[in-house]
Specification:
Length: 98
């Protein structure tokens, strides 16, 4: 086997792993959004606001710490969480409007 063949075989193995991680991420996000949808319905029925800035700040701090301990860029983790939170708040606003 040549160096190129070996590199290609290793690349394919890495890509299979990445594909598995991507699938796991999608399934985890789907589960998370199922729960946050229930939270949105509960908030709407109890006339609670769609966002909770204190909770969001706590989550950002917690996930930044988790990212650091996992050797992941905490800024990236925060941006990712903020994106997810924006989506969740949109869902909660939609639930409140129904």
């Amino acid at each position: 086997m040549t160096d190129t063949d070996s590199a290609i075989a290793q690349l394919l193995e890495y890509r299979r792993s990445i594909d598995n991680f991507d699938a796991a991420l999608i399934h985890i996000l789907a589960e998370r959004f199922r729960v946050t949808k229930a939270v949105g319905a509960l908030k709407a029925s109890a006339d609670l606001p769609p966002s909770d800035p204190n909770r969001e700040a706590e989550q950002v701090a917690r996930l930044r710490d988790l990212a650091k301990s996992s050797d992941l860029d905490p800024d990236f983790a925060e941006k990712f969480l903020e994106f997810v939170i924006r989506e969740v708040i949109q869902h909660h606003k939609q639930a409140a409007a129904k």
